[in-house]
Amino acid sequence: DTGVSQDPRHKITKRGQNVTFRCDPISEHNRLYWYRQTLGQGPEFLTYFQNEAQLEKSRLLSDRFSAERPKGSFSTLEIQRTEQGDSAMYLCASSLLTKSYNEQFFGPGTRLTVL
Amino acid sequence: SQQGEEDPQALSIQEGENATMNCSYKTSINNLQWYRQNSGRGLVHLILIRSNEREKHSGRLRVTLDTSKKSSSLLITASRAADTASYFCATFGSSNTGKLIFGQGTTLQVKP
Known about the structure:
The complex is a heterodimer. By secondary structure, chain A is an all-beta fold. Chain A contains no helices and 11 strands. In chain A, strands 2, 4, 5, 6, 9, 10 and 11 form a 7-stranded mixed beta sheet that branches. In chain A, strands 1-3-8-7 form a 4-stranded antiparallel beta sheet, with no helix packed on it. The interface between A and B is medium-sized, with 29 and 25 residues.
């Protein structure tokens, strides 16, 4: 257990439905990252927050995706009008920005299946 | 986008044998990291090697880095069934964001 939790662990939804995932980072960590991982591939960066500010979004993050970190603590990732291509593992990671390299601690992930 | 290739994509060995995985990357780096992922779970950080280092050890892990060839290798010695997992190399996309760019991974199976 890395100290990063994600909820739910599994989500099955029908195409066109909206889904929301939650990530609780390690409490003192000021950076929070979302990644997406499809079967047989490495994780791909989606977006990241420093405190409550969303500082970068990947081109993978279409308009149907939105992420928030309202108080600089937990974060949510919402997917609207889900498509079958959204089926993947969504991973959250957190880190503490320091002068040296910041190790990222990953949560267990939320596995999304879109039928 | 993926950082580069990992080789082999899959590896099956007997317990006690050594396992070697290779990773190539595309851009210049400050450091390279290796992660392990057990089936269907999150990633666990294993080891980081800085660009000015050529080799680093941690327990049964040995990592090498060749910046001239833009490649790294991870050696697991005296493998155990519990080492069965996927292994990924990762580099930072940029020094400011801290976002990681992962390779495609090597799936290691260690048979008891």
